[in-house]
From TrEMBL:
Broad class of the protein's primary localization: nucleus
Pfam families according to UniProt: MSC
Any GO BP annotation: nuclear membrane organization
Molecular functions per Gene Ontology: chromatin binding
Compartment list: Nucleus inner membrane
Residue stretches spanning the membrane: 38-56
InterPro entries according to UniProt: Heh2/Src1, Man1/Src1-like_C, MAN1_winged_helix_dom
Protein's name in the database: Man1/Src1-like C-terminal domain-containing protein
Keywords of this entry: Membrane, Nucleus, Phosphoprotein, Transmembrane, Transmembrane helix
Domain Man1/Src1-like C-terminal: 22-143
Superkingdom per UniProt: Eukaryota
Recorded GO CC terms: endoplasmic reticulum; nuclear inner membrane; nuclear periphery
Length: 156
């Protein structure tokens, strides 16, 4: 040993070396090991969130359509009383433009829902009529009773 120094080599066990990995390395390994489960969980969360949002949107649309339907009935009932000498019928498209907000006019499903509610109501007649030379669908109140009997608020 006179001429040089011999260094002693130490061997590190693999288990001990693995335990000294950085946090970032451990996170990457954990993600790689559980990638399928993570992707499946993300997919399920996105689908459930989309279904919930769609359901809330549909419920909001139906509630607004019911409000518009009651407004339509009120207008038609007022016209049927005929106190001011107006016609008893109303052009449906004109009533739509009068009742819907400008932002709501783009939502075609909303007025389709209102039309469906009107078609189901036996108190309202719906028929084509020539108005100013153009054919329009008109609605006319035929009901004997008043809208004031059980209102929507008392049903809830």
């Amino acid at each position: 040993m006179a001429g040089g120094f011999r260094l002693r080599e130490f061997e590190c066990p693999m288990g001990l070396a693995a335990s000294y990995q950085s946090i970032g390395c451990r996170i990457r390994k954990g993600i790689k090991a559980n990638l399928n489960g993570i992707l499946l969980t993300i997919f399920i969360v996105v689908v459930v969130a989309a279904c919930i949002l769609r359901n809330l949107e549909d419920r909001k649309l139906v509630n607004r359509a019911e409000d518009l339907y009651f407004q339509v009935c009120e207008v038609l009932e007022e016209r049927a009383d005929g106190a001011s000498g107006e016609t008893k019928w109303v052009v449906a498209s004109g009533l739509r433009d009068h009742l819907l907000l400008p932002s709501e006019r783009k939502i075609t499903r909303l007025w389709k829902e209102v039309e469906g509610l009107v078609q189901e109501d036996s108190r309202i007649d719906q028929y084509p009529k020539l108005v100013n030379g153009n054919s329009h669908v008109v609605w006319e109140w035929q009901g004997e009773g008043s809208l004031q009997t059980p209102t929507r608020d008392t049903e809830r």
